[in-house]
Amino acid sequence: MTEVAGPSVLVRATAGELARKRAGVAVAAIAGEGTAEAAAGRAAPDTVFEIGSLTKVFTSLLLARLVVAGKAALDEPVTDLLGAPVPERDGERITLRHLATHTSGLPRLPKGMFLPALLNPRKPDPYADCTAEFLLDGLTRTKLGATPGKRFRYSNLGAGLLGLALARRAGTTYERLVAEQISRPLGLTHTGLDDTGLTQGHDRRSRPVAPWHLADLAGAGGLRSTVADLAVFARAQLDADSTELAEAIRLTHTAEGHRMNRFTTMRLGWLELRRDGDSQLWHNGATGGFTSFLAIRPTRHTAVAALSDTARSVDRPAADLLRALSTP
């Protein structure tokens, strides 16, 4: 791994800044051919964190891999993969593209979760009971908040159903699909659903909290990873042609998505921010005791990943680091 002086200094400074209010943090950055990693507090670059909704980028890459292999289609109805009824509205069916771009019209949470979450927001491991049976039964009682494809409505339920549907189409589990289609080809050694090596998470008041397990909703936020693995994943986004995932990676970056406003488009799993002819792809994540951030700027060949073992956002310092690295 090549380390360059400029990014190293900036990465260490960002890690130090984040560690002031967090038990442990890890940060990685790419600038051109150089990669720098730093950790502070109780963490190291190979410390395992929950990455929360950053998982959605991996789930959408799985979708792209199956599409490229001819095993699925972006505009295929999800009911065909789940083998179960899925709600419709105005004669429109929910497709895989809708799930990946949060335009399905599905609510944020599965049926039966909202009220318990409202009454007991500190419940440990709140998604642990989200089995396929629970999710599919809830769908029979779910009404869509918008016609599929018409409106952006962020949905953990939709992203989790996408992961479940892809696993069923592939005849395997979500965990194995990630391992076979992403982790092994890219050489990610600590990215998966396994708790092995997972560091202790903390709430905003620095109190220890239980890890989260998302059962069959794992595609929405169940992965664990290290900043070292995320640096490899980010490098693959920037240098896609050097991997066997090249066509799938490009598809997640460029497939028709949903225009949210004049600056932002929801691509397959990635939020794309475009200003002054430049493009940034990013996503973040949070669980009960962790936060995460990953962003790339392909035209500048830069990227930043940040992980925290405390439920405090890392977005602003991480985004500032990316901006500093990307400034000519």
Which descriptors apply to this entry?
single chain, 328 residues, alpha+beta, Beta-lactamase, two-stranded antiparallel ribbon, 11 helices, 12 strands, globular, disordered N terminus, AmpC-like, Beta-lactam/transpept-like, Beta-lactam-related, Beta-lactamase-related domain-containing protein
Description:
The chain is an alpha+beta fold. The chain has a single domain (5-326), classed as DD-peptidase/beta-lactamase superfamily (Beta-lactamase, 3-Layer(aba) Sandwich). 35% of the residues lie in helices and 17% in strands. It has helices spanning 5-19, 55-68, 78-82, 96-100, 114-119, 132-139, 156-170, 174-186, 227-238, 246-254, 315-326; strands spanning 24-31, 34-41, 49-50, 201-202, 208-209, 224-225, 258-259, 264-266, 271-275, 278-286, 291-297, 302-308. It has an eight-stranded antiparallel β-sheet with strand order 2-1-12-11-10-9-8-7, sandwiched between helices. The protein has a two-stranded antiparallel sheet with strand order 3-6. Strand 9 and strand 10 form a beta hairpin. The protein is globular, with a radius of gyration of 19 Å. The two termini are 23 Å apart. Mean pLDDT is 95; it is low at 1-5.
